[in-house]
């Protein structure tokens, strides 16, 4: 299906995770892996109620799609490399965050705000900046 209205419909407000899931798959099947990676990154970084492991899954898929982008198409070579580097850094941070979260899980029900901070760790992608 190559309808010009499909992409416009899937990008239309309100943006939802299910619509973006269809959109990244459309881009991947249409031979546009960099566009698919951009959508996957947007899902991972969205304000949707995604748990950390799901964000990590989307970032991993984004990296895989970005790596499959042919570097000679469209003159986006530098942009694609920069985007891929940024994705890989976010993926590294998310992997460390997941490890820390798993290490702290035994303290999830501790009194005070420690448990709340551990829960927050599983609901938000952290950055190094």
Shape: globular
Computed CA radius of gyration, to the nearest angstrom: 17 Å
The largest sheet, given as strand count, sense and whether it forms a barrel, is:
none
Average of the residue pLDDT scores: 90
Residue ranges: pLDDT <50 for 5 or more in a row?
Answer: none
Helical fraction equals: 55-70%
Beta-strand fraction estimate = under 5%
Helical run tally: 6
String of helices and strands: HHHHHH
How far apart, in Å, are the first and last alpha carbons? 41 Å
**Quaternary structure type:** single chain
Number of β-strand runs: 0
What structural class results from the helix and strand content? mainly alpha
Describe, in plain words, how this protein is organized in 3D:
This protein has helices at residues 4-11, 17-29, 33-44, 52-67, 77-104, 114-121. The longest helix has 28 residues, at 77-104. The chain has 129 residues and is mainly α. It is built from 6 helices and no strands. Helices cover 66% and strands 0% of the residues.
In short:
The protein is mostly helical.
Which features would summarize this protein structure in a list?
129 residues, 0% strand
Helices, strands, pairings?
Blueprint: H1 4-11, H2 17-29, H3 33-44, H4 52-67, H5 77-104, H6 114-121
Helix pairs in contact: 2-3, 3-4, 4-5
């Amino acid at each position: 299906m190559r309808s010009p209205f499909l992409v416009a419909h899937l990008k239309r407000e309100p943006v939802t995770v299910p619509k973006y899931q269809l959109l990244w798959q459309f881009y991947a099947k249409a031979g546009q892996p960099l566009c698919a990676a951009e959508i996957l990154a947007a899902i991972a970084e969205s304000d949707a109620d995604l748990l950390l492991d799901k964000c990590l899954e989307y970032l991993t898929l984004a990296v895989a799609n970005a790596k499959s982008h042919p570097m000679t198409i469209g003159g986006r070579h530098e942009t694609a490399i920069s985007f891929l580097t940024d994705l890989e850094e976010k993926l590294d941070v998310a992997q460390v965050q997941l490890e820390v979260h798993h290490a702290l899980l035994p303290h999830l029900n501790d009194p005070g705000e420690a448990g709340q901070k551990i829960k927050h760790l599983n609901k938000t992608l952290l950055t190094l900046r």
